[in-house]
Amino acid sequence: MPTYGRLPIALSHGRGLRVWDTEGREYLDALSGIAVNTLGHAHPRLVAALQDQVGKLIHTSNYYLVPLQEQLAAKLVALSGLTNVFFCNSGLEANEGALKIARKYGHDVLGLAEPQTLVFEGAFHGRSLATLSATANPKVQAGFAPLVPGFVRAPLNDLAAVEALLDANPNVSAIFLETIQGEGGINPARVEFLQGLRRVCDARKLLLMLDEVQCGIGRTGKWFAHQWAGIQPDVMPLAKGLGSGVPVGAIVCGPKASGVLTAGNHGTTFGGNPLAMRAGVETLATMEADGLVAHAGRMGDRLMAALRAGLQGVPGFVEVRGQGLMIGIELARPCGVLLQRGVDAGLLFSVTADRVVRLLPALVATEAEVDEIAARLLPLIMAFLAEPQA
Ligand SMILES: *Cc1c(COP(=O)(O)O)cnc(C)c1O
């Protein structure tokens, strides 16, 4: 189906941050399959583990105990300080489950007849009917009315507006946001805002649900982006980077939320299968063994500094923002044409929210590779900004 606008290259194999197309051309991958390939391409430790697992068991269903689920859940619980995990296959699925938890918590715990979820401007939560309804982008919603009801929307980083909306909407049972908005243009929820939301949720007995599908799993220089604010969510959907390329999603819950779904309330055929769990276990173990979380923070600082130094004062450059290896470069005008120019220059990245060049390199990026990303990207942006506007 014609659902994607694709660049005209086909990638055949990769190693670390390098990928090669079917014509033998080499690229530096600064996108990682949209924040998915945490360990880069063909990481030897992950490859060996997956080969071993494929030869043992790929899938069994959730009719039986799956010890690798226990193992990955224990690791996610230890890293997050939360208590329980449900495994699924993708980001929207994790978010869909979180929204079900918000509704059922509203009914069971708060006694609400029609619980609502507070969501934010600029949000992206996925493309199922519920998650696209929670999303703020009209392009994602166009053509799919009627949307799923039960959402109230607030501006990001405006605690007073959130409190006013909650006062006006006593049916809200949960506040749901990306700790750092990804598709919306790399817009971080500020530390004080996150801390304020935590206080508001505690005071009003609401669930704080942080979508860390893109910003979680070490990318920002902490295991989870909300750890920069020193708070904990009640519900945290994860996916993208968790399996380093193998589809796996998770809903990680704290004590307020972990008992809401009970037997028969929720399920998935593929979720938590041994292959996906092995990918998750091995991804986290490799990150830990190689110190990749702190490394991502250092590489991100280095890359952002290089980008800021190169673009400082250039007309049409707005700002570089992000945390760790989740970086947006905002320009003053739409810059989708840069994608093909990147391909021509041997550099893969994305453009989101029309005007934001987005970089999400693998966490294994070296200093030399980070410098090379900046060296290939800066001339493209400067040439673009120097062109007369159409
Ligand atoms: C990518 C993304 C999703 C959707 O994940 P899929 O795996 O594509 O369904 C949801 N939330 C955020 C923050 C994302 O970046």
TrEMBL record:
Query: According to its UniProt record, where is this protein mainly located?
Result: cytoplasm
Pathway this chain belongs to: Amino-acid biosynthesis; L-arginine biosynthesis; N(2)-acetyl-L-ornithine from L-glutamate: step 4/4; Amine and polyamine biosynthesis; ectoine biosynthesis; L-ectoine from L-aspartate 4-semialdehyde: step 1/3
Pfam families in UniProt? Aminotran_3
The gene designation is argD
Any GO molecular function: diaminobutyrate-2-oxoglutarate transaminase activity
Instruction: Give me the Gene Ontology terms describing cellular component.
Output: cytoplasm
* Record's catalysed reaction(s): N(2)-acetyl-L-ornithine + 2-oxoglutarate = N-acetyl-L-glutamate 5-semialdehyde + L-glutamate
Q: Where in the cell is it found?
A: Cytoplasm
Q: Which cofactor does it need?
A: pyridoxal 5'-phosphate
EC class, as a word, reads transferase
- Whose protein is this, by species? Inhella crocodyli
Q: Which residues bind pyridoxal 5'-phosphate?
A: F124, D211, E212, V213, Q214, T269
The residues that the entry says bind N(2)-acetyl-L-ornithine are R127, T268
**What name does the UniProt record give this protein?**
Acetylornithine aminotransferase
Please provide the Gene Ontology terms (biological process) for this protein: L-arginine biosynthetic process
